[in-house]
Amino acid sequence: xNHGAEGAAISFGAEIGHDLQASIGREWLVTNGRGxxxxxxxxxxxxxxxxxxxxxxxxxxxxRTVLVGGLAEWLTVAGRRVALHAHERADGxxxxxxxxxxxxxxxxxxxxxxxxxxxxxxxxxxxxxxxGSNTTYVRYAVEGTGRPRVDLELTPxxxxxDHHELGHESDGSPELRIGGPDAxxxxxxxxxxHQPFRVGFPGGSFVPAGRWLRRFRHREETARGLHDxxxxxxxxxxxxxxxxxxxxxxxxxxxxxxxxxxxxxxFAELERxxxxxxxxxxxxxxxxxxxxxxxxxxxxxDREIPLGDPAPAGRADGATERGRTVxxxxxxxxxxxxxTMIALPGLCLATGRHDEAATILRSFGRFIRHGLLPxxxxxxxxxxxxxxxxxxxxxxxxxxxxxxxxxxxEALVDALLSTLRASLDAHVVGTDFGIGMxxxxxxxxxxxxxxxxxxxxxxxxxxxxTPRRGKPVEIEALWINALRIVGGWLVARGDSDGAGGxxxxxxxxxxxxxxxxxxxxxxxxxxxxxxxxDGDDLALRPNQLFALSLPYxxxxxxVARSVVDAVGRALAVPLGLRSLAPSDPAYRPRFRGDRRFxxxxxxxxxxxxxxxxxxxEAVAMVHGSAAGLDVxxxxxxxxxxxxxxxxxxxxxxxxxxxxxxxxxxxxxVAEVLRVWRALGGA
Length: 682
Hints:
Blueprint: E1 10-12, H1 20-24, E2 27-31, E3 37-41, E4 52-59, E5 62-77, E6 80-83, E7 87-88, E8 94-95, E9 102-108, E10 111-118, E11 121-129, E12 135-142, E13 150-162, E14 175-179, E15 185-189, E16 197-200, E17 205-217, H2 219-223, E18 229-242, E19 248-253, H3 262-279, H4 287-297, E20 300-306, E21 320-326, E22 329-330, H5 337-349, H6 354-365, H7 392-407, H8 411-429, E23 436-437, E24 444-445, E25 459-460, E26 463-464, E27 471-472, H9 473-492, H10 499-518, E28 519-520, E29 525-526, E30 529-532, E31 535-537, H11 546-549, H12 557-570, E32 572-573, E33 576-578, H13 595-600, E34 607-608, H14 612-623, H15 625-632, H16 635-638, E35 650-651, E36 659-660, E37 664-665, H17 666-678
Antiparallel strand pairs: 1-9, 2-3, 3-4, 4-5, 5-6, 5-13, 7-8, 9-10, 10-11, 11-12, 12-19, 13-18, 14-15, 15-16, 16-19, 17-18, 20-21, 22-37, 23-24, 25-26, 27-30, 28-29, 30-31, 32-33, 33-34, 35-36
Helix pairs in contact: 4-17, 5-6, 5-7, 5-17, 6-7, 7-8, 7-9, 8-9, 9-10, 12-14, 14-15, 14-17
């Protein structure tokens, strides 16, 4: 990992400061391994409710709360006072235009570094979080030597609101307490008795002058049809000076313990990121691969899990231990079972983090109920996870198998095999939401009124947009693979009661039925759902790719080639796959508007980058590894757009394929990373 502007994997020059749309439309993200984060635009304009310098996970990895929404930043150089900040007001005007002084932006590892030019003086601002701590550091330094002293005036703009919401003056003014060694910090005690947090300014001074700044506009919330105006509380002014070799660092923390000193914290984070590249055997890898590895790290976080079996409601009644999980996407997702199992091979196994992968797999096993892995964990601790998913439990044995292959060890298989078998047994006899094996053909069916079970899971006010009830194509591919994987493990271990043999027999029967029922030679592709309430669904969707890309392919040779060609013609775009063919009457060419309108098109054409993984594998199967790698190469440019250094959740399905949804999505990063390495990408 290179430090400094030269050799940075992703960098921009002064042009970024002269183009507001370019700088306001690109976002940076730093995380702390606990679900907390700092997040903003290159321009410094808070366009989302989620933007802030300290978004603390107060109930890790959830309970995420915006505490410091931003700063007002003034620099005085040789008697000239200029602003670095820019805030948009409700009337569309801007309070200052600091983005115009941007002389460059880069990622140092995954840390955003801003360079500002004031005359011939360049000031660098760097932001990072301490791993394992709700603590953000904002460091200011003068570049070069022999430059004049620069005076800083920094006003932290604080709040206290759930990261899905916006704060307002009506929430109440906080109490400020100045204290600590040499009075180098101020404690903010929010109204309502909420947990206090601190702003530290070692080497600086503080002049309290609390007042509300009102009616900030957040334009991305406007675009999403949500409330878009907030208020922030200016606690007062922090004053400090910087000079070459004498930086100043603001320390924002929600921890009760003393944060690490800034320079030690910076060294620790740089070394931690370098260690991740060493673990991934990627110290000499391309900047593209190194950036993906560091992006993957942002999603792997702590979660407390129960010791022993969880309570029936899905939460622990007693002691817990440290587990690990995967945040599905920043900023608004928590951890999801389906996303975790799909993303785990890329996030953990392709990066050498085998022990963490095992911890995640063990952690999720504790929350299985009626044979079903949790769909998602709510945003507040102590609340039961939802289990409304048909596929998360089927991805689970595939993730365990991937771990066994990556480590050349089946120790984890031995630890989890009884859990995996019990899950499949529940599917055979039938479980919640109508999920169960059809005894007539061995295929898996599922569906219940008002419930969304597959990954195409949009639901608005009780309306399930793509219900896919019956036997969806990817569910059958996952089901047959799960039966073969777990059945094979049981047989290899003696299969004392014949369960493994029964699983394998069911897989054989189901596979014969699959080919007969799903392959449509007149269309040249596989049906999306069979045996639905309204018959078979022949929509051309990307879900059929899993019949080719999983460890036990269900179609090969000419059928596989036909499927790849059909998907390539109608669904493939440079950064993912459309979720529905444009020729379909239900196709939506845009993803924008209020929640109902957006969710109505979430899986009706919208492009999903994570699907590029199975597509690239399928292309490689049919046309060779080089062709598969070519499918992934456009992501090298995407790392410079939207979420810088990461990969978006979705894109609009028509040119220019504008990124939408979360700017950083776990399975998007994971699938590109996994398949890039699997196909030999450097």
